[in-house]
Design goal:
The chain is of the alpha/beta class. It has 17 helices and 14 strands. It folds into 2 domains: about 260 residues, P-loop containing nucleotide triphosphate hydrolases (Rossmann fold, 3-Layer(aba) Sandwich); about 160 residues, P-loop containing nucleotide triphosphate hydrolases (Rossmann fold), CATH 3.40.50. The termini are far apart.
Length: about 425
């Protein structure tokens, strides 16, 4: 989430305001007990907005307190009043800004305030959140359950690749308050009568620009046509960039939307120490190996552009005794989830990933990001290095610029508005690998 120091200094960095909830939610809601807001004191600070300042329900604040959400990020401060009031919204914000907390807290606040008078049918969500990838759906649902720990809310997911029967059963057997879904699986369930969207009076379209890039907009249109008319529906759209296509969709789907913009992408860069090693293609693996073996390298994500390169690199590291795992689009969903959890909990310290898979990685404590190959798009560079430097911790980004990829640097520097330090690798990073015979 947003990295500006004026908005993110927290007294307990393990669960900061700017970060997504990291607690593992239970399947059932916790009992609220005798908790009250006085048990979660947050002192007012000049220039900062507290979650206390929004007069949220005590049970909702209890979940927020468990996550130690204290001061709002810029998008939370700007957007929450309008979202809670039920206004349509377009948010220029990407992963790492705190946008998930904006729409989740807003949705939960409205759903609790506007309880239905009649018994609802199973599989009929009151709020719908659409996201482009399975990993993002899983993360948003996990965040929702964590924030709603003490609320009588049923949150369900629908995403492709795995869990078809389980997801279907979870929707058919009880009423649903919030449904988080990828477009394809949601349409499938809708056509089969598993899900009914005519009561989804709140709708969130997350990462709208990626929806466009991935060709999901026709599916999203079909989904929206199944929800209440836009004048009877609160619609929120979030996008890292507000392109002409995104703006056109917003004009079709929203009513007088509030526009909130943050500079999260470039701000995220400011919290990470960046270095570019100029080297030859033949030196890259040697330098990478020695970086991983250095004492300062605790947990690292290595990015490549191509799936085949990621697999080749992962296999080579494993042959050299590195405890690593692979995350690409070719890895089955159940394995992707288990590998992410192994990395999250420190059972594996090195992950090799591509950009598509890497967008599902929201893990604190990543010390290093290595761009083994520089990305084709500057936006992907910023997204990659944003995997480190989270939760107020220091982060290091190391990029390799060889004969083939160095010309991408100019576009990256223009995008982030600064010149990257380019240096040859230190002598210790070029020492040969001693392999056991």
């Amino acid at each position: 989430m947003d990295k500006k120091q004026t908005d993110q200094q927290q007294s307990r960095p393990k669960n900061p305001v700017k970060n997504k909830p990291s607690a593992s939610p239970t399947a059932k809601n916790k009992k609220p007990g005798k908790w009250n807001i006085s048990q979660f004191p947050v002192d007012p600070e000049e220039g900062k907005t507290r979650f206390h300042d929004f007069a949220l329900l005590a049970a909702l604040m209890h979940g927020i307190a468990d996550l130690d959400f204290r001061y709002c990020t810029p998008i939370q401060r700007q957007a929450l009043p309008d979202v809670i009031a039920g206004k349509d919204l377009i948010g220029k914000a990407s992963t790492g800004t705190g946008k998930s907390a904006v729409f989740l807290i807003g949705i939960l606040s409205r759903l609790m305030r506007e309880q239905p008078q009649e018994k609802r049918k199973n599989g009929t969500p009151r709020a719908l959140i659409i996201a482009p990838t399975r990993e993002l759906v899983i993360q948003i649902a996990k965040d929702a359950r964590a924030i709603a720990s003490y609320l009588p809310m049923h949150i369900a997911e629908a995403y492709g690749g795995t869990g078809y029967e389980r997801q279907q059963k979870n929707l058919k057997n009880r009423p649903v308050d919030i449904l988080v879904a990828t477009p394809g699986r949601l349409l499938d369930f809708s056509r089969k009568g598993v899900v009914h969207l005519h009561e989804a009076g709140i709708m969130v379209i997350d990462e709208a620009d990626r929806m466009l890039d991935m060709g999901f907009i026709p599916d999203v249109r079909s989904i929206i046509h199944k929800t209440p008319n836009r004048d009877k529906r609160q619609t929120m759209m979030f996008s890292a960039t507000i392109t002409e296509d995104v703006a056109r969709l917003a004009s079709q789907w929203c009513v007088n939307p509030v526009l909130v913009e943050t500079e999260a992408e470039n701000v995220a860069v400011e919290t990470v120490t960046q270095v570019v090693y100029t080297l030859t293609r033949d030196e890259k693996y040697l330098v990478l190996y020695n970086i991983i073996k250095s004492a300062a390298c605790d947990r690292v994500i290595i990015f490549t552009n191509m799936k085949r390169d990621a697999k080749k690199l992962n296999d080579q590291l494993r042959r050299d005794g590195i405890n690593c795992t692979l995350l690409t689009g070719d890895v089955p969903q159940h394995k992707r989830t288990s590998r992410l959890e192994s990395f999250r909990h420190g059972r594996v310290h090195v992950m090799v990933a591509t950009d598509v898979a890497g967008r599902g990685i929201h893990i604190d404590g990543i010390s290093h990001v290595v761009n083994f190959t520089l990305p084709y798009e500057p936006e992907d560079y910023v997204h990659r290095i944003g995997r480190t430097g989270r939760a107020g911790a220091a982060g290091i980004s190391i990029s390799f610029a060889d004969e083939e990829s160095s010309f991408y640097l100019m576009d990256i520097e223009e995008y982030i508005g600064e010149t990257l330090p380019c240096i040859p690798p230190e002598e210790e990073l070029l020492k040969p690998i001693v392999r056991k015979k």
